[in-house]
Every structure is written in C-alpha cells, then in structure tokens.
Amino acid sequence: MRLKTKLVLAITGLVFAVVVLFSWMWLSQMLQQHIQESWFFTDSQAHEVLLEVQTALDTGLSQRHFDPRDPAAVEAAVADTLRQDPGLNLQLTAIENYSPTVLDIAIVDTHGRALVTAPDATLEGQVLPHRPDYGALLHRSLIRTLRIVFGPPRVYDVTRGLDLDNRPFLNVRIGINTTFLRNAFHPWLVESLTFIGVAMIISIVVAAFVANLALHPIGQISRRLDALAAVEAVAEDSVRRDIPRAAEPPDVAEAASAPEPRGGDEVAQVSGKIDRLGQRIRNVEEVFSALRENLDQILSNLQDGVMLFTRDARAVLVSSSVERFLNIGRERIFGAEVREIFDRGTRLGRTVRDAFEGGMSIVQEEVTTETGRRVEVSLDFIHDAHSADRHSLGALLTLHDLESVREIESELEVSRRMASIGRLTAGVGHEVKNPINAIVVHLELLRNKVQAGDDAMRHLDVIQNEIRRLDRVVQTLVDFSRPVELQMRDQDLRGIVSRVLMLASADFQTRGIEVESQAPAWPVVSRVDADLVEQAVLNIVLNGAQAMASGGVLSVRLSEDTRWASILVRDQGEGIPEEIRPRIFDLYFTTKKEGSGIGLAMTWRIVQLHHGQIDVESKAGNGTTFVLRLPLISAGSGQRVVTEAAEGVVPGEWADRAGETQPERSGP
Q1: Domain at 489-666, CATH from 1.10.8.80, 3.30.565.10, 2.40.50.100, 3.10.20.600
Q2: What pLDDT digit, counting tens, does each position of 539-554 carry?
Q3: DSSP letter string, 426-495
Q4: All structural domains of the chain with their residue ranges
Q5: Which fold is adopted by the domain 3-202?
Q6: How far apart are CA 295 and CA 297, in angstroms?
Q7: How far is residue 542's CA from residue 535's CA, in Å, rounded to a whole number?
Q8: The whole model's pTM is what?
Q9: In 3-state terms, what secondary structure has residue 589?
C-alpha cells in the first residue's frame, strides 16, 4: 500500500473516531435528558395525585362515622373515601389515559396494600409487589439504559408518600413500563441515529478529500526538490572535478551514490530527496563549523579589536579584544548597529560614527579616549568590484591599543634589564661565594691554632659572623634575581585580600590595630599568580602595621576602573621621609633595625611580573598610602563571572556585600 494512501486512511480513521466519540457522548446526553424529563413529569403527576388524596381525605373523612382508635375502621374509612371521591377518580383516569409512559396508578398503605388502583380495580385490597425506583435510571450508563429501555418489558415506580402526625400514612405509586418508554423514545432515537450516520459519512468523505488535498502539494515539492538537486549536482560535479574521489568524506561519497527512490509513491520520493538534501546541508554545516571554529580561535588570540559590519552597518563578526576597548560584552555587540555600539559622547564613538555616516575610510588615526588610552583606529569599506556602482558590501574596523604596545615595549625592556642583572648577579654571586668558602675554611684552621682565651679569638669570631652575613646577602641576591615561573590563573582579588587580612590578623591584635576593609560586591577578576600577589600584598600590609607602633587604623580598599584593579593600603604611621622615598624599593634598603630590605623589593618585582604598577604617597606624620594596580581580565564595571577562581572563594565580609562598596571595621 502506498504511503500516501496510508496517510489518507489514517487521517480519515482519526476523524471517524472523533465523530463516533462525540456522537456517543451526544446520544448519551440526549437519552439521559429524555429520561429525566419523563421522571420529572411523572413525579409532578404523583404530587398532583397526592394533593388530591389529601383534599379528598380532608373533606370525606369528616362526613363519616368511625372509631379513630380502631386501625381497621380507619383504613376502611380511608379506602371508601378515596374510592368514592369523584375528583380523585377522574384525575387517576386522566393520567392513565393520556400519559404515554404510565402503566398503572395505585394508592397503598404503609404495608403495600392497595386502597385504590387504576385501571385494574380488582387489585384493591391486595398487597402489591415491590418494583424498582424509576429514579435509578437517571444515573445509568448509556449501554445499561439502552438495555433496560429496549430489553424485556419491566415496570418501574415513581413513589411519593403522605405523612400523618410525622408518620408515614399513604403512598402514591405510578408505574412506568419500559415498553411505553421505548415507544416514546423510538422516534427521536431513530432521528438521532440517522443524523449520526449521515454525519459519519459526511465526515469520512470530507476527511478523505481534505487529506488528499493536503497531500497534493507533495508533488509540487518533489518537482522543486528535483530542480534544487539539479542545481546542487552541477555545483557538486564542478567541485568533484578538482577533488579526487578518494579524498571525499565518506558521508559525501555515500550521499552522492545514494540511489533514487523508485515507484509512484510521491511521499517516499520526497522523503528520499529531503534526506539527500539534508545530508548535503549537514556536510556544508560541518565545513562552515570548522571554518568558524578556526576563525574564532584566530580572533580570540588577536590583541587588536576587529569588527566586521554588513552593508546596513550591523556587526556580524567581533573579536574578544573589542570588549577591552568598548566596555561592552560581545553578546550585546553581535547584530547591533553602529549607532547602538558607539556613543557620540565619546571621542572614539564620535570618530567611528562620523566615518560610517560619511562613508569615509580611516587609515591608522590615533584617538585618545577620555581615560587617557591611546587607540589607533582603522576603517576600511568593502566594495563589490563586479558591480557598476561599486556599492558597499560592508566594513572592517580595527582598534589597535598603542598603550599596550608601549607597555609591552617597556616590559620587554625591563625583562631584558632584569635578565642582564640576573646573569650579572649570578656571576658575581658565584665569584664571591668561592672566596668566601675559602676564607671560611682557612678561618677554621686559624681558630684551631689560636689558643682559647686569646684576644685574637674575639676578632676571629667577629670576622666569622661578618662572613656568614655576607654569605646570606649574596645568597639572597642570587635568589632574588633567579627567574620565577608564574602560575597564572583567573582570580577574584577579593579572596586574595581577604586571605592576607586573615594571615595578618594575629599581628594586628598584638599591635592593637583596627582594620577597615572595603571591596565591591561583584568579583574583581585578574589573571595572576595567587601566591605571589598574596605575598606582595602581605608585605605592604605588614609594613603598614609595623609603621604604627602605638596602634591605629589600617585601611585596605579594593576597587576597579576600566582597566585596572587597585589595592590601596593606608596606615597612620609616621610616614616616609621624602629623601629616602625613591629608595624604598631598592634591594637591601631598610630603615628598620631588624629589617632585611627584601620585602618591598620583592613586592615591586611581583607587580612588574604581572604587568602592574605600584604607587606610594606619604607625608611625614600623616601616614603612607601604597596602591597596587593589576590589569583586569576584561574592561568594564559590570558584574563579571569568575571563570577559574575556585580557590578565590571570598569569606565573610568580602562576599556578602549588598551595595557597591561598604566599609567594615575589625579590631583586636
């Protein structure tokens, strides 16, 4: 069987099932409605009879003489009154004659003995058999109701009672025969079934026609797919002429050699053609995905910002370095227009907007931003050489950071100098340690020859101590100049500063120093060696604590701007005299009695290794302020996500901030 035929039959069968379901529900509701109407009508007749019985008893018993204490006399008087009452008998006859479903009517006492019966008066005085309640049919299912109505004849009762002194006295029973019900329901039931049958036939015909009509466009789709496949086959053949058969990917060769579906089933043909086109599209997507991955990798490694725009000035290609220049995430730049990306309120934005609006290229124009950064801008418009008017296809914008070039050149110069100093220091250390070792050996020999207690022994001890100190100095110099292997990772600087304050807390308590800390509520992320930066900040913090001999407040503040993360440490000590301030970062320079002169020099070296800056402000008697600046991973003041800062979890007061910055004080 053809697939198209199967689809038509499936749709037709589904429509038929829906029509049958709704027809069944409608028939069930209609039958229940008719039974309910019949019950309500019969129930109202029972109430009318009961009212007429009560009226007959009120007027008839008052005219009869009987002993009210004798139940038999009372029952006989009631029976005679009801049988002789003309109004009651007339009403019973009318109900029995004109109601299409009523079989009989009986007025019985509490024991079921008939007092009055119609139409068969011979049953009076007899105990009538029990019959099921007609109201039970109201809650039957359609199948059971149909079985009862159209099955063997059965009689149901609608019963209403009369109470006397709040006790049951008489009951009115109206019998309904199912045969009469069948005769009453038969006309509308035939009409309903006829309507349902016609509806089913019409629905089947309409469903078959609509299904066939809906599947008719498949032929047109098949022809268009043939035309598209022919165009692609021409292009594929031209490519295969240049590509060896063995070099083709397996899936391409398999798609090319796939047989055409045969037969008259249009659905199967279209399905096969769509499968082949889908395979070709997947092959093209794989090629473009590989090209895109390579392009993204190239753009991610570029230091310059590169942006490619379409002819309607929308960004379709953006390198990751653009974020450093514009302080905007790449996801906001993609698909945006030039006027949405560049703000005329900035110099860089004004330059780019003017060039786009005027259609003028920019050749390495230097722009100084509001933050003092020097950026070299180049804008090239791409034109269609094959068109007569050479209309623009798009534009390529390049942003080159001159400050980064200058910083890199400065860092290279510092690295060359440090390497030269390292080589010189290593050579000097090696040349100095050899004589020191020889002096130590001969000094020990001389000590053995000098007698104990001799005054020369004291001079020998002094010489030995000084030689040991000189050896330590040389070893420290060699260690300081030795190359350091950095373990660079993305770190939240809040965690580093927090750990430094925790390490120095014991020293703060000993010296009676209060710490005032301040940090942003969002992560401040920089790519650093956490251990080295932690050591650098700890050196500054301990120097500030040691500068306050009588206690005080040590302020530590972490902040950021568009390029730098700044760690400010301010003490309330005596300050650094102006004449020695330029020498505080020199190796071995110190003004402390027990100082080694290595801490600040090591701090300066760590900051230089991270391409950062360190500034000092100090006034005699007003304390000293150190500011360490480290480059941010990406420029911007928004809330960035820490990518690899698992160990940078910020404790306590550094992590649970609600505002931009909130000071917090802690003391001994």
Answers
A1: 3.30.565.10
A2: 899 988 988 888 899 9
A3: HHHHHHHHHHHHHHHHHHHHHHHHSPTT-HHHHHHHHHHHHHHHHHHHHHHHHHHHS------EEEEHHH
A4: 3-202, 219-297, 298-401, 406-481, 489-666
A5: Beta-Lactamase (3.30.450)
A6: 5
A7: 10
A8: 0.36
A9: coil
